[in-house]
Amino acid sequence: MTNKREMALVAFIQAQNCSNLPSSWRHPESSTDFMSASYYANIGRTLEIGKFHLAFFDDRLAIPDVYSDDFKVTVREGIRAVKLDPMLCATAMGLATTHLGVGVTYSTTYYEPFHVARIFATLDHLTGGRAAWNVVTSLNGSEAANFGSDVVLEHDRRYDRADEFLQVVRGHWRSWDDDALVIDKASGVFADADRVRRLDHAGPWFKSRGPFTVPRSRQGEPVLIQAGQSGRGREFAAKWGDLVFVIYPSLAIGRPAYQAFKDHLDAIGRGRDTVKVAPAVYVITGETQAEAEDRHAALDKLAKPIDGLVLLSEVLNFDFAAKGYDEPFTSEEMDGISGLQAFRDRVVKLSGRANPSPRDFVQYTQRGTLAEFPVFLGTPHQVADQMEEWYGSACDGFVVAAGQIPGSYDDFVRHIVPELQRRELFREEYTGRTLRENLGIQAPTACSR
């Protein structure tokens, strides 16, 4: 188990043509071999040198094409235009490392529970117990259309489906006891059949019989990541998540939100220390404050206004080209937003307007820019000061997004990690074999009959 005062460090990875910053591909030092296995292997090796707990891959099941109901601007501008299958990219990263956890985003809306249970259980075995699943419900019509559907499930119904999806997946993962495998060549017994069960699940959304085809892994089952911050999403994250990924625009907002979530964990009987909470941040460092500011400016000028409008249309499932820039959304339009409700709720709160305009959404989300997440900027000492101020009172660690790859992670590992270690906020070495052990999250046990 990890030290109580050890922050969790998670890298926010895209199996795409850019980092989380969509304009990053334009940076003169950004790698362009994002469709090669070596690209992901090299990132993983760098993160492992820095003793990161985990790299997790974001994903959507369509390129952004809601804006103007077209994809051409996305392709021309490279606004997350290439989306490889993150499972294969994460596998390449996992096989190139020995301690780093690898997490993959997979949807509960367009896949089947048995398939998801098997592919993540397999990844967990191939990596020796280092797999994680970032559970999402999918959110826009472009994704639905790619899977043959004309409609997007309503927000709460997506979570209802996701609840049952998780029941089925976990049921399969726990249908083999930890000691079911025998593999005794002398006796000819491969496994104890009394320690393997059918699931026989039949519910409103799914039927799945079993038995499951993958025995238990070294860490029991993959770590679950969740990012729900709306009311229904927060309940889902608190119920299922081991690691909760959040976006806090500021420390002042993050502290009460963090404490409220921890109190909620206590209220539902999970315990506030059983789930890690990690906000997304950008980190930009240099030998001097001026050097860090210059690097920030060089990244900041890469972004274009169209990046934000295209990505807002994608994440909110609403065509921002259909509104005047200063035209308020109607109440009906606000109620009809079927995408990421946490974004909508944040804009309403920060703007103070129940009916914000596209300008308000751009201003208060800063989608597609460095300002979308808090930016920790300065010398390594100054950055570590900022991280230390947040740690413990607003989070249990950080999801570190890269302004550009490989430079952002190279700089973080070379300069920030040693400063955190000097302050005894971060480990010198990996202390466990599995991702759960390194995160300090208890391994679940299989359910007995």
From TrEMBL:
Q: Which GO terms describe its molecular function?
A: monooxygenase activity; oxidoreductase activity, acting on paired donors, with incorporation or reduction of molecular oxygen
The Luciferase-like domain extends over 60-393
For this UniProt record, give its keywords in alphabetical order, as a comma-separated list.
Flavoprotein, FMN, Monooxygenase, Oxidoreductase
**Mind telling me which Pfam families this protein's record contains?**
Bac_luciferase (PF00296)
Residues the record lists as binding FMN: D59, T105, H155, Y159, S230
User: Is Signal found in the keyword set?
Assistant: no
Q: Which family does it belong to?
A: Belongs to the NtaA/SnaA/DszA monooxygenase family.
Question: Per its UniProt record, what PANTHER family does this chain match?
Answer: ALKANESULFONATE MONOOXYGENASE-RELATED, C2H2 FINGER DOMAIN TRANSCRIPTION FACTOR (EUROFUNG)-RELATED
Query: What is this protein's name?
Result: Monooxygenase
Q: Origin organism of this chain?
A: Chelatococcus reniformis
Task: Provide the organism lineage as a comma list.
Answer: Bacteria, Pseudomonadati, Pseudomonadota, Alphaproteobacteria, Hyphomicrobiales
